[in-house]
Every structure is written in structure tokens, then in C-alpha cells.
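Q: Got a minute? One more chain.
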Amino acid sequence: MKLRVKKMRVLVACEFSGIVREAFARRGHDAWSCDLLPSERPGNHIQDDVREVLDNGWDMMIAHPPCTFLANSGVRWLFQDSKYMTKELRWDYLREAADFFKKLLNAPIPHIAVENPIPHKYAIELIGKKYDQLIQPWQFGAPYSKATCLWLKNLPPLKPTKIIPKNQVQQQVWKEPPSKERWKNRSRTYRGIAEAMAEQWGSILRR
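A: Always. Here it is, folded:
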């Protein structure tokens, strides 16, 4: 007998682009994004603090918490003042970011994936758990390099869908020119990764 995919309630936390949300929605799931910003794409979107909706009976959550104070790329600023803030204030923001990260990772939702760039060791200590998988866009059909870590709860690691030859892979993220939109352009999920999440993880509950 052919198994039918069960419709799931999926929350995509801290997503304004709607890319992951729509990948699940196209497969028939009741998918919602949630962010303090409005959605860039039409669709089910909750413009609010995601902590207010974690208890709303979701089957799965894909979360993209802010990485500014957790990412290894900025670890040196924990030990020196910048023109924007003191190192003491940055440590305070680091602890707040880690608490928010843990709130998502430990939410009362059966299946969870939390996404972030490679974290520094202080972030891992505060989160209390190293990432379960590291993926790259070039494993999912995009010719770019951008290391992305996944913390997984009751979800299998993602399987690559279309590997791009190494001689065709480009660096893109760090080349993004300074602008008010830089952080948004760097934070959007690549479509190939979103499609893999929806296809592979959207099929784990069957009837």
C-alpha cells in the first residue's frame, strides 16, 4: 500500500523571506513563518516574537536565530572594543543570543532543526550542544560556499541533492558589499536547501 504524507503544522522561526515556508507549503503542509519583520513573499506569516507562538501545537520547527554574537567569524570582538560597542556589552549580547537559541532548540515541538553559521566555542558552551551537521549550498545545487550548521531534534541529517563540482564553487557571502540590506542578503536560505528540508523532513510523518 502506498504511504501518504501526513499534513504537518510547520513553523519557520525567524524567517522574513518565506523561502523555507513556501517549500513546505508547496508540499501541502500548513506552514507558517514568524519574524519581527513582515514577509517578503505572500503567504502565512506571523509578525511577532516567535517565543509567543512556540506552544501553538506545531509538528515541526525550522529556526534561523540571529547569529551576530554566536558566529565564529566575530569571536575576536569578544576580547576587544569596537567602534560600535564594548567587549563587555558584546558578552551580554552573546548570553542573550545563546538563551534565545536554547529556547528554540528546547521548544515543546516534536521535530526541530536550528540553523546557524559555524559558532565559536563560547557559544557552544552556552548553548550546551555542538551542531549535528554541517552543510554547504554547493551540496544542494547552488554554486556557492557558505558553511551552515544544523542542530537537529528527531530529524535525520539532510542528504545532498545536487553536488556542484569544486572548480565551479564560488565564495559569495563575504563578498556582499556593505549596505543596510547586507545582513538580510546574507541570511536568506538557499532555495536548494529549503527544498531539501521540505522534501526530506516533510515526509517523516506518514500514515
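A: The CA atoms of residues 17 and 40 lie 5 Å apart.
Q: Perfect, thanks.
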